[in-house]
Amino acid sequence: MDNLNSYLILSAVLFSIGTIGVLTRKNAIVVFMCIELMLNAVNLTFVAFSRHLGNLDGQIFVFFIMTVAAAEAAVGLAMFIAFFNNRESIDIDDANIMKW
Amino acid sequence: MFDNVWLIPLFPLIGFLINGLLGKKIKNETIIGTIGSVAVFASFITAVMIFMNLIGLPANERSVNVKIFSWISAGNFNADIAFLIDPLSCLMMLVVTGISTVIHIYSIGYMHGEEGFYRFFAYLNLFVFSMLLLVSGNNLLLMFVGWEGVGLCSYLLIGYYFHKKSASDAGKKAFVMNRVGDFGFLLGTFTLFWWLGQTHDVWTIQFTELAKNADLFPTGGIVTIITLCFFLGATGKSAQIPLYTWLPDAMEGPTPVSALIHAATMVTAGVYMIGRMSFLFIRSPETMLTVAVVGACTALFAATIGTAQNDIKRVLAYSTVSQLGYMFLAMGVGAFTAGIFHLMTHAFFKACLFLGSGAVIHSMHHALHHVHSHDDAQDMRNMGGLKKFMPLTYLTFLTATIAIAGIPGFSGFFSKDEILWQAFANPLHGSMNTVLWAFGACAALLTAFYMFRLVFMTFHGTCRIKAGAEKHLHESPMVIVVPLLILAFFAAVGGYFGVPKLIGDLFGGIPNYLEHFLSPVFANAEAYMHAHTHHAHHSHALEWGLMGTSVVIAVVGISVAYMLYMVNPDIPKKFTSAFPVLHRAVYNKWYVDEIYDFVFVNPCKALGRLLWKGFDVLVVDGIVNGVATVVMAFGGVIRYFQTGQIYNYAWTMAFGVVVIVGYYLFK
Amino acid sequence: MSNILSVMTFLPILGVLLLLFIPKESKGVLRSVALATTLASFAVSLPLITGFQTNAEFQFVENVPWIAAGPFAMRYNIGIDGISLWLVVLTTFIMPISVLSTWTAVEEHVKEYMICMLLLETGLLGAFISLDLFLFYIFWEVMLIPMYFMIGIWGGKNRLYAAVKFFIYTMFGSMLMLVALIYLYFLGTKAGITDFSLVHFFDLKVDPSTQTWLFAAFALAFAIKVPMFPLHTWLPDAHTEAPTAGSVILAAIMLKMGTYGYIRFAMPLFPEASHQFTPFIATLAVIGIIYAALVAMVQEDVKKLVAYSSVAHLGFVMLGLFAMNEQGVTGALLQNLNHGISTGALFLIVGFIYERRHTRLITDFGGLSKQMPIFATIFMIVTLSSVALPGTNGFVGEFLILVGGFESSLRWWTIVASSGVIFAAVYMLWMFQRVMFGELDNPKNQKLLDLNAREIGLMIPLLIMVFFLGVYPNPFIKKMTPAINKIVAHTRIEPVKTAKAAVPTVEDTAPHAVPTQSVNPHASQPVAAPASH
Amino acid sequence: MDINVAQLFQTINLNVIMPEIILSVLGMALLLVNVFIPSKSKTYLVWLSLIGIVLAGFTTVTGWGSNITSFNGSVVQDNFAMFFKIIFLVAAGLAVLISDQYVEREECNYGELYPIILFTTVGMMLMASGTDLMTLFLGLELMSISLYVLAGFNRANVKSNEAGMKYFLLGAFSTGFLLYGMALVYGVTGTTRVAKIAEIVSGMPSAAGNTMLLIGMFLLLVGFLFKIAAAPFHMWTPDVYEGAPTPMTAFMSAGPKAAGFAALLRLLLVAFPALKPEWSDLLWILAVLTMTIGNFTALRQDNIKRMLAYSSIAHAGYALVGLTAANSTGTSGILFYMLSYAFMNIGAFAVIILVGKKGEPNGTVMDFAGLGRKHPLLAVTMSLFLFSLAGMPPTAGFIGKFYLFSGAIQEGYIWLAIIGVMNSAASVYYYLRVMVFMYFKPAEEEFDWVTVSAPVALSLAVSAAGTLIPGVIPSMILQYAQQAVKFF
């Protein structure tokens, strides 16, 4: 049980780091990386639980998450490129035409 | 025959409809005038026939209800279109239709060439219709219909020259003041209906039913409230203090209107109403006293104003107010017959006076018009010495003046003297009666004075009309003069219907026809009065003495007028310069209109404006629009949370997550 | 014809469909079709009068299932009784007149205008005949839409503000009513009621404290529509800005919706609460009478003046309703009709001069009597009817209301209200004087034409009704009486005499009564769960 | 764990996901077709997609009444799923119809649009029919990723780029929370099957006291609340709606919102009914916040797309009222409302597309001035949609709101209902404002560019019918909605 808790704590810390990164970083790619970090924290949680519970569902879930993350990365990076083409920047501060 | 009583109001109504709807097309004045007059005359004939039938009945059966149809019935409230034929209503119908006929004929001549001739006759017929409803309706509500109807016609006819602001103002004033009275009438009706129903389960507003149940009413208490409400109605309609100010202004209307509505008929409706409800009024000593005091005060008060007016019609108007005061005084002391008697004689002589003044004004106007003068045709200061130009008019006018002044032998003497005697001798008000009598006597003095002042200023002395206009003054046409003669005749002899017992006995037992005729109507009230008051017995000598006093008073009044306006015309001027404040106050009608403006009219307008701009616009709409503004402002603020920055959005989300999770973690 | 009510109500929709296929250039045809439709609807409504049995039952009933899903069952349940009969006929009677009144005034978008009018008619009629609470609510809301457009598109200068204010003001009230309606339904389902039919709910015993809230919600919605002081401020704006026909319909019919709502729904559904609220509502009604009169007195715009006079008149109606006796309610319902006729006519009259002069300021007029005698006569008659002169319609209603009020516990209120007759005379006659009397000194007024045949023609039916109702109102009253008696008997809890004494006891027993006979478990905790954790 | 392959295949019933299969195959085929047919006009893709959508719809409705699970219990074909599938198909169909004219005008007429719409639809359908956290997640991501693309579809347009990027980053961020929630729920219950979760949670002696479960559940909810744009997870909505190509905005406001509700309903009412006291409090507050923020902010918007975005937040709030009630009245109300909302909102956006010019310089409410005079029919249709959005009878919007608020009242949430109707009354203002401009104000520009292409006309007709008819005869749809929520 102690074992599980340390995994969980670790993944929680990772998740928090990722969250804080999203909240604080300005570069879109770094923000996206932080999100990836959050997802990986989740993966760690899943795996830890899977291991602890002795059932494979969690690990299968992780596969899906990784796949989806890859797909997201592809779409996301394409979007950043399009944005960069128009605005010469991928700073998220610059994505502020629309407000109020 | 009685079943045909509805014909009486119907004829004028038909006349009204014909003239009102088609008059404009007819154009011919003779036809229009004839239609109007014939309609009223037909009513008169019918009324006479009804009267004949009525006196054919035994005295105690002279009360017939004729129902036409059920008008309003809801729950226990029921009002019919139904007529009551009894001596009182019959007498009123006769007076109304009779005088109306005369005045209609007069109007054909008087209104000749006026724009809207047809309108005048239509209104006049409508008035007669309403007045007949008022006097013949068998329940309070139908009476109220007539009551308001005559008010309407009064409004329409006062405002006949609607392009004159003063005329339309006066019309409005009359209507509104009448409405104040009507408010009282309505409240009285409600209270009466409700109280009788609630406490005795008698749900009725029909006069005969009410009279039948008169014994259910207590003395004073609720009856005082009811009767005071009704009396408020009466003060409005009959121009008593405090609601009298509309009547002098009402002289803006054409003179026949003044004669018919504002002297002979409509303004006496209040008196009639009290007579009709005598069984109720008598049951409240407080109200009776109020009526008497108000009547006496009005009689005196209006007479004072009458002494200082220069407009011939205004003098007559204040005289009317004053004479109405007499009638109320009579009602208030329980002398119902005397009140009605004075109502009748007053109708004759005052109608005659007004019509006579109309003839004078007509002539003056004509003459002044010829010389293109803008002098006031109604101002007595422009008249004088008209006697020689208009002898017949003068004659009739003088007759009526003598009658109103109370010279023995003329109608006014009988009725007025009866009232003064009753005021003195009545058992109702104890020690108050001397005061009441004194007020009445003073008013009589002033009446004699200002009426002869009027006669002297108008018909005697030097002619003060603008130079060159005299030759255009002339006697009026026959259509005007004949009605004057008729009315003057009745003004002279009308009193013999009700010769006091004292005099009647003197002349070999001439009966008091009127008293006998009306006695069934007032029987209930009389009976109550006898049962509840200690009837002091006064000696004949006292009565003779008082009668003599009033004759002396009349003579004194006339003599003073003669002294001041014939012998030594400078005295009035000296008097006015000696007491300028007093004169100005009297001349300006004691500033009552101004006081009313200050106390009621202006505050109402100011309050209205305040409520509108202050409450409606500022408070209510302020709140409504304020809520909208606040909501909009709130929307304006929270939209700025939407900064457009991704990390702000992410922060918000994270904040939401933390709050939610934190709440469930630490609760 | 068994579905006469449906035919009458939806005939205008048929007219709308017809109008859609008429090109918008042929204005004459558009107008004629609209007029023909409204006339047809009127013709269809006439058999209602002749066929109406003088009893308290709902008649000409059509009742078929409509919506049934989940806990709800709504029925297409329509019918009329003595209370709604005359309002229905009034509606069909006023509509052709309104259509005719804008024959020349509306030149732009005639097609859309007529469509709005016809839709409005359906909405109004539907609301009067609905016997299903839900159906009523639908019509109640639907009628806002065409009215909104009528004010907004064909209105005066400040029409936007007026239209939006009208819409949101009314919407606000009816939304709360909706909540109350649903709540009531669920109370009903607990007592075995399976659909929204009104009659079921009359027998539902709702505990008094719940009644208070439900009544308040209903009353608010209706009070806004009536409109009662102090919720009346939308009315002067809406009236002033609306086109003539809009004002006529608004005054003559739509405001009746509020008073109708009280007598049909709020009062019989929640009798205890009605009693509890009586002094409050009566006070507002009386304040409204005096207040509106005072404010009307100082108005500078004729139409606004008439609008405020409406507030005063409807104050009388409310007073009559809450007298809760036969005279009062009869008077109130009669006054509904009278106000519809008189004020409708007044708005038409204002429309006539507005069309001629394009102003409604009193100061711009004066002395019109000379130039327009026929107009003056008609105006005078209508004015007098509005000030409730005996012999005209206004008097009968007002008198019965006051008699009723006097007999009820509202005696003191009635006394104050009676003074309204004085004020009515003041502001109406003063306005009449300033508009019609005096010198004709404004050169623009010197060339005014008197009424033409069309204008006279559309006033005549109204004038006839003014006198008919004034002289012979009994046929109208007779048809109403059984229904009124039924509702009065249903609403009245105890004899009026003891009403004052009984109120505290009702309140005292209420809390004890709730747990035992409760049909409303939520009454004690209306804020529901969230706060409790 | 021994896996019997034959048994596994027995549990797979492809009929259950037949609509998804049709759309996926069609989508992939269209991608190819688009490459090989070098036509400049892509209208044929519209009709092809529409055929597929209708086909999928047909396949869906034929299964009505059945309740079949497949893929070992991770996908289900039940009335609930089918009802939502119809909503998605309606949204997709209408979106496809209104896209062509728009993308042509905006010069971003790339053929991929239609396949992506179809893929989005597949994702949404999976969300509705998924009964396993994994399927839900996959559906959600399929939908989301496609939507990111759609939002940023107009590559050359700065606003569209920005919309795509914002949506993407925030969407991914929310996915993180969602997944973390799933992980925690999995950790507590040891399963990802919705039905099993329910079993275990209701079997737990003190589920309400299990912090990890609660946190997991709430994080899970956050992911879906983000999709339906509930406050405080709504911040992306206005910007994305404003920036995204208008047809996509229309699609986004109708489809994914409904999908989010499908998943929320499934999770809350199937997996976590035992925790109702916990989540209903939260939803109560969120419903109030969402309605109020949405409506109040919308009051002050001039850009009509942005205004409708805030309005769509408010509508999510109304639907949350029904979710808070969580009874059959409320939930069937949600179903009905989502369908109606698809009709009325996409209809409104269709009109916006028609009134808009290239580059959308005139996207404000003021630009509707005079529309009532120039294009009366268009204006009437728009009014119909707006009245429905405002909840005026006799439109579907009213019936929907009626059921939503009724649900709340039935459960005793009187104040929630009152706040809801008050919001509804306030919202009238900004809907009326559009009408004020359409009818009461003169045109500042001639509407000479407004032409209605056949697909848009069709979509308008369908939307109008879908807004009006259920308003008059709602039982037609309500009875199916009732059947769909019967199993809760």
Can you describe this structure?
The complex is a heterotetramer of chains A (100), B (667), C (533) and D (488). By secondary structure, chain A is mainly α. Chain A contains three helices and no strands. Chain A has one domain: Helix Hairpins (Orthogonal Bundle), CATH 1.10.287.3510. The model of chain A has no long low-confidence stretch (mean pLDDT 89). Chain B is mainly α and 667 residues long. A two-stranded antiparallel sheet of chain B has the order 1-2. In chain B, strand 1 and strand 2 form a beta hairpin. Chain B is globular. The termini of chain B are far apart. Chain C has one domain. In chain C, 73% of the residues lie in helices and 4% in strands. Chain C contains 22 helices and two strands. In chain C, helix 1 packs antiparallel against helix 2. The termini of chain C are far apart. The interface between B and C is large, with 58 and 63 residues.
Summarize the structure.
With 533 residues, chain C is mostly helical. In chain C, 73% of the residues lie in helices and 4% in strands. In chain C, strands 1-2 form a two-stranded antiparallel ribbon.
Write the layout of secondary structure elements.
The complex is a heterotetramer of chains A (100), B (667), C (533) and D (488).
Chain A (H helix, E strand, L loop, with lengths): L1 H23 L3 H26 L3 H31 L13
Chain B lengths: L6 H20 L2 H27 L8 E11 L2 E9 L1 H24 L6 H20 L3 H19 L6 H36 L6 H6 L9 H16 L8 H4 L5 H10 L4 H8 L1 H4 L3 H22 L5 H21 L3 H35 L20 H15 L5 H15 L6 H28 L18 H16 L7 H6 L6 H20 L7 H28 L2 H9 L1 H8 L4 H47 L7 H21 L1
Antiparallel strand pairs in B: 1-2
Chain C lengths: L3 H17 L6 H25 L7 E11 L2 E9 L1 H20 L8 H20 L3 H10 L1 H11 L4 H32 L7 H5 L5 H18 L8 H8 L2 H26 L1 H27 L4 H22 L2 H32 L10 H4 L1 H14 L6 H15 L3 H8 L1 H17 L16 H19 L2 H18 L7 H19 L16
Antiparallel strand pairs in C: 1-2
Biggest sheet layout of chain A: none
Name the beta content range of chain A. under 5%
Order of helices and strands of chain C: HHEEHHHHHHHHHHHHHHHHHHHH
Low-pLDDT stretches of chain A are none
Largest interface pair: B-C, 58 and 63 residues
Number of strands of chain C: 2
Largest sheet of chain C: 2 strands, antiparallel
**Straight-line distance between termini of chain C:** 60 Å
Strand content of chain C: under 5%
Total strands of chain A: 0
Tally of domains of chain A: 1
Shape designation of chain A: elongated
